[in-house]
Amino acid sequence: MARVWVLTSGRTGDDKQSLRLATALGEPFEEKKIVFNERAATWRLMLGPGVDTVDLARSSSLEAPWPDMVISTGWRQVPVVRWVRWRSGGRTRLVQMNRPPGPRHFDLVLSPPQYEVPARPNIVRLDWPLQPPPEPETLARAAAEWEPRLRALPRPWTVLLLGGSSHPFQLGPDDARTLFDGALARVSNAGGSLLISTSRRTPEPALEVLRQASADAGDRVYLYTWSADATENPYLAFLSGGDEFVVTPDSISMLVEVARLGRPLAIAPHTRVRSLGKDLRAAAKRLLHGSPEAPRTGLGESISDLASALGLKFGRDLASVSRKMIERGWAADFPDFGGRPGEVLPDDDFARIVERAKALLDD
């Protein structure tokens, strides 16, 4: 029987994708929770295998017997998974998601569309992120748990799911005000309610606007403000009961979850910011790494690997996912809503990559 580890780090969107793939393999697996120390915040160079960035006392044990496969998501785990392979004598297969530095060190790299990782034999570029919708049973439990607190809100429900500011998007107080006023007018005309969920990345100035506006609007608005200390979160209940959703474009996991539920979806108003420094860095990344449309080969791959080892990560275009959703009819810019009646965002990539990962285990 194969031994599989899944490294998780508390980043919900990343961890869900890793755990989903591990579950689909049909083999028992262990979740290894990794807590990073202060070194991880400044680590940029891919200096090779190691656990110097891990708080070993607070993390799951990493010791023999070593696994046949490690599944992980995110660049901070890269030294750790390579260390596991080294400790296993090179036997452990590595499956990594997103845009890991040094992709040649991995057996399989799964890259969602927002990352500009050029294709190679061991790299699979995904049409959409692997974020699955919650299981129906999970949604039903959340709906039942929150029903006493939400039953007074008249339907239909318009749900706002807010991320925050992440280049090139900025969620400022004016954006929050525009979104709130437009959504409140919509639910007032429909005789419904407005349900809002913020996240750890929602900026305080935008939060303050939402708090004041919600208080002024009365009992048709339910505002949940994310807190690290909170023991309850209505997010799943909102997913279960929402009739239509407005999501900020930086929140790719939430965009995909809603689209895979088949609900009407709108992209929240936001400010696009430009940064000359970031634009120059993006140009350098495309020059040295190549692009998905024009991947590097031969010497070009070696140059890309060197740039990656020196800390120049592959590019990221957060706008690409919401743009692609709008172009293909899965979303629209608020106040319009997109979606295909009776259809959900396809998940065709998943079966293909499960077979690739199973083949690695069979080897």
Helix content: 25-40%
Class from secondary-structure proportions: alpha/beta
CATH fold name of the largest domain, please? Rossmann fold
Number of helices: 12
Query: Which spans of ≥5 residues are poorly predicted at pLDDT below 50?
Result: none
Strand order of the largest sheet: 2-1-3-4-5-7
List the secondary-structure elements in sequence, H or E: EHEHEHEEEEHEEHEHEHEHEEHEEHEHEH
Mean pLDDT: 92
Structurally, the number of domains stands at 2
Question: What are the key terms here?
Answer:
alpha/beta; Rossmann fold; 363 residues; 6-stranded parallel sheet; 2 domains; globular
How would you summarize what this structure contains?
The protein has helices at residues 12-24, 39-42, 78-87, 136-150, 173-190, 204-217, 235-241, 252-259, 276-289, 299-309, 319-327, 348-362; strands at 4-8, 29-33, 69-73, 93-97, 108-111, 115-116, 123-125, 157-161, 169-170, 193-197, 221-224, 244-247, 265-267, 271-272, 290-291, 294-295, 315-316, 332-333. The protein is an alpha/beta fold.
